[in-house]
Amino acid sequence: MEVSTMIGTEIFSPAGEKLGYVKTVYLSKDRKKITCLLCVDEGEQEDGADDEFVMPFRAVLSVKDVVIAKKTRIAKTIGSPVPVGINAYSDTGEALGTLCEILVGDGGPVYIVTKNGVRTPYSDDSVVIGEALMISPEGEKKQRTAKAEKKVSASPVVATLQETETDVAPAEEKSVPESELLTVANAGSGVDRLNLLGRQVKITVRDGNGETIAKSGERITPEILSNARKNNLLLRLTVNTLTNLV
User: What is the pTM for the complete model shown?
Assistant: First the structure.
C-alpha cells in the first residue's frame, strides 16, 4: 500500500457519514505496517478550530478514492509519522532526491525517492532514516543508534523540511492568468496530487480569504497538502509546482 495516498483523503463511515479527512499517517517502529491515522473532524467547533482525533488502522475497511472506516477512536497516536518529504543522500554524500512515498506490506517497506521526475525504489535493507534518508549499497545497512531513533521520533517532517531548505531562495511572486493556469493544468492532469509532497512552491497560494496556504519557495508538507484540500486548492497547488520537480 502507498502510505501517502491517504494523506488529505476524506473519511466516510460504512453508512456514508463523513467523518473528516486524514492529516497524517503513522507507521510502526520497523515501518512494516500502518498503526494509526491522525485525522481531522471538519465539524463546527465553538472556537472555530478543527477537532483532531486518532483512528487505529484496524478500523479502516477500505482505501481508494476515499477511506471507509468504522468510528473507532484511540487516545493517542502509536508509532512515528510517515517521513515523506525528507531529503535522500547516498553514503558518499550525493543528493539523490526526496522521499515521496513508502510502500508497506509483505516483504517489508520500500522507499520511493524522486529526483527530476524519476521515481527510484530502495529496499529497507539499504536505508537508514534520521533527519534525512541515508541510502547505502544493498545489504550494507548500518545499524541505527539509540540517539538516531530518538531524533526520528521527536522530529516532525515539517521541522526537517524547514531545516533542510533554509538555503533555498523564494521565487519572485507574480500573477498568472487563469487561462494559462487552465492550459498547464490540462497538460498535467495526470499528475497525482500525492506526488506534490516535497516539491517547491513557485508562487504563493492563498485561499479565498487571503490566508496563505503555501509560501513561495517552501516545500510542500502533509499539512500544506491537507489545507489545500480543505480549501479546494489542490489543482492550483498542482499547477504551481508542475515545473518545480525535485
Answer: 0.57
